[in-house]
Amino acid sequence: MPSFDLFSIGHSNIPAERFLAMLRDAGVTAIADVRSAPYSRWFPWFSQKALAARLADAGIAHLGVGDTLGGRPRDESLFRDGVADYEAMAIQPEFRAGLNRLLDAAARFRVCAMCAEREPLDCHRYLLVARDLAERGLAVGHILHDGTIEPQAVTEQRLLALDGGGCDLFAAGQRERLAAAYRRRAHTVAFRRKVPTRRDAAEKQ
């Protein structure tokens, strides 16, 4: 298995014991929770307090970083056409500080960034956080629900294929096509701000 500096996982509806087993198999010793809202209505053990306790029982640390690395910005200027703008978010001081905190943890633990979405291509943990880490030269592995670990570069190949841009990351101009694929995918799956309707305005009066 390739050597990874950090991991990512989406908890989705994974049973608790299966989730812990996947972390153990990858050698994870700390979860970095990158959810803006660290709660789960349908799977309450993934809510922050319950999760931290369950992880502690398994000898795994819990780090809440959703306030700086979450995918739902509080600043309205970080939305473009009503959609969270990952490229704008990536250059914010708060995001950079969150990444540095994540890297500090990675120097002491085997860290796995956790969000809710099952598929990395549907989640900011890949499209925003892991992308930045990979650009810093770190090897990121995405723990998939079948237990396999997919390297960031392979996920990028899937992104390009999904976007119709081919899979050769070393072809001329492919980096530009990859950046465009990231942008288009983010615009498709990123958090959308509710646009007030006339009815909403009338109800406030």
Could you characterize the architecture of this molecule?
With 205 residues, this protein is α/β, with parallel strands linked by helices. Helices cover 44% and strands 14% of the residues. The protein contains 9 helices and 8 strands. It has helices at residues 16-26, 48-57, 66-69, 86-89, 93-106, 124-135, 152-163, 174-189, 198-204; strands at residues 6-10, 30-33, 61-64, 79-80, 83-84, 111-115, 140-143, 149-151. It has a 6-stranded mixed β-sheet, with helices on both faces. The longest helix is centred in the last third of the chain and has 16 residues, at 174-189. It is globular and about 45 Å long. It starts with 5 loop residues before the first strand and ends with a helix. The mean pLDDT is 91.
Largest sheet, in brief, is: 6 strands, mixed
Q: State the CATH architecture.
A: Alpha-Beta Complex
How many domain modules? 1
The DSSP helix count reads 9
**pLDDT averaged residue by residue:** 91
Number of strands: 8
* CATH domain class: Alpha Beta
Helix content: 40-55%
Give a quick rundown of the structure.
This protein is of the alpha/beta class. It has helices at 16-26, 48-57, 66-69, 86-89, 93-106, 124-135, 152-163, 174-189, 198-204, and strands at 6-10, 30-33, 61-64, 79-80, 83-84, 111-115, 140-143, 149-151. Helix 7 packs across helix 8.
